[in-house]
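Molecular record:
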Amino acid sequence: TADYSACVTIGQLEERGPNGELPGLYLLHAWHGRVSFSELKRQAKQFARQFRPDAVVIEDAASGQSLLQELRIDTDLPLQPVKVAGDKLVRAAAAEPTISAGRVMVPEGAPWVEEFLREVCAFPAAPHDDFVDSLVHAIVHLRSDPTYNWRRWVRDQAIIAAARDYSAEAAALRFGMEVDEIEEIVRDYDDAGRELIEEYERRSRLHDPYWRCYHCGQEIVPGTSVTDNMIHRFHKDCATKRRQLGLPI
């Protein structure tokens, strides 16, 4: 009977999210099973298509070595082989500070969460530790590799170029992805570009007195109503306050 194989997918949030999400590592998915090598390879490709990871970290030992070799031939995934050193307890100790600090978030209600937590919380006394191994590899990689965003950027640039030079369909075929995934990458890139331009313009305004209220010193957002005396500009509310206080406008 084959040993258990496992895969965990981790996302990293470096700053507080738009809805108040805390910075840290977010467990997006966890899977394990006793499967044949061909099924293991199929699962690896499926998860890569689903989550579009910045790095696919695979233990360079046992079946992991064969999986790395096969995926290098069949895919252009951002593979990251990792050599194991020391026993499992020593390796787990490297990830323990991150977990103890509450920086690993686990979703409530996911169908796989209960089994995942049962194994991780019982380590090293649990009958299996495949989830623990995968989690440790992911945490150590994310905490030690500052270039993963760069690899993602390079890959996305290649995808965007293929989509624009040819078509989304051609890019999907080239990168083994769905057309809607390609379109989403291009759309996100365009949106991010607009946001960067807007942010650059906003930051430029912050250093220009013309775009600051002379009364409160806060930014005057383009398109909002202002009071302008040809020398200084004021928010409407600030101009009203100045009149009430008898201050010049």
